[in-house]
Amino acid sequence: MSNLLGQILFIIFTILYGLIWARVIISWLPWLNIHIDPDNFIVRIIYEATDPILVPLRRFTTIGMIDWSPLVALLIIGLIRNAFRGFF
């Protein structure tokens, strides 16, 4: 049973990892002169899924105009994800 729980948590953290990468890519698109509608259904889902993680981290990781919260979140989620893969 614990193996199943570990696999489920690993999958959840993998999805979250991908959503944060998607949010990073979406934030870079305006620099490439590609405009995404923020009211787009998929964009809203990505932001709503990642805001609970990134917003609290943003208080501690913003230096000047650079927001390091996605990088910190990816590192933390990567460590947790690998821990679930190793322990279960």
Describe this structure in words.
The mean pLDDT is 88. The chain has a two-stranded antiparallel ribbon with strand order 1-2. The chain has 88 residues and is mostly helical. It contains three helices and two strands, in the order H-H-E-E-H.
State the gist of this model.
The protein has three helices and two strands, in the order ααββα. It is mainly α and 88 residues long.
Question: How would you describe this structure in keywords?
Answer:
globular, 88 residues, two-stranded antiparallel sheet, mainly alpha, 3 helices
Write the layout of secondary structure elements.
Blueprint: H1 2-28, H2 41-61, E1 62-63, E2 66-67, H3 69-87
Antiparallel strand pairs: 1-2
Tally of DSSP helical segments: 3
Mean pLDDT: 88
Distance between the termini: 10 Å
- Structural class category: mainly alpha
Strand order of the largest sheet: 1-2
Count of the domains:
1
Biggest sheet character: 2 strands, antiparallel
Query: What is the overall shape?
Result: globular
- Percent of residues in beta strands: under 5%
Question: Low-confidence parts lasting 5 or more residues at pLDDT below 50?
Answer: none
The secondary-structure element order is HHEEH
Helix percent band: over 70%
The total count of strands amounts to: 2
